Amino acid sequence: MNIVTAQLISGDDGRAVTFAGHRLAIPDAVVHASPGIEALFGREVILGIRPSDFEDSSLTDDSWPRMPVVTHVIEALGSEIHVIFSIDAPPVVHKDIADLAPEQEEEGAAIPLHEGKSLWTARVNARSRVRAGDRIELGVDTRNLHFFDPDSGLAIGVKQAAELRP
User: Fold this and answer.
1) Which of 160, 165, 166, 161 is nearest to 35 (CA)?
2) Which of 40, 80, 110, 117 is most buried (most C-beta within 10 Å)?
């Protein structure tokens, strides 16, 4: 999972999460499905985006928010392409950082790059014409954003095991 420290914001133009110069609108359905998230607007959180929740914007619906990026490396794998790009944010350092990703995590986690930036991975359709060094726009499926408490590292809006017991 790609992770970054982000800010939850709410204003006249709706709710969004901002990080490293990017702004992604948060769908109302995500807010309604995430108990406790409403109280965190105006605060810092840890944002997680899975590589599979990105797509070359030329292959997505116009409703998907866009992230302009410069590709560093691509890895063509037949049915998909892994796009490696940097974001202008330092790697997230948290005592429970390993707990932010499920054990059955897909390949392609964020890793440190240099000069305070992080490398991220996007998994896009093999029909994409992306090449290393390209400036492209990635569409982001914001219905699947993951939010974590920066203090505890716990997922926000997900019932914890103790809450689920009868």
Assistant:
1) 160
2) 110
Per-residue DSSP letters for the chain? -EEEEEEEEEETTEEEEEETTEEEEPPHHHHHTSTT-GGGTTSEEEEEE-GGGEEEGGGS-TTS-EEEEEEEEEEE-SSEEEEEEEESSPPP--TTGGGGS-TTPPS---EE-STT-EEEEEEEETT----TT-EEEEEE-GGG-EEE-TTT-PBTTS--HHHH--
Note the pTM of the prediction, 2 decimals.
0.82
pLDDT at 62 over 70: yes
Residue 103 confidence class, pLDDT cut points 50, 70, 90: very low
Query: What is residue 54's predicted lDDT score, i.e. its pLDDT?
Result: 98
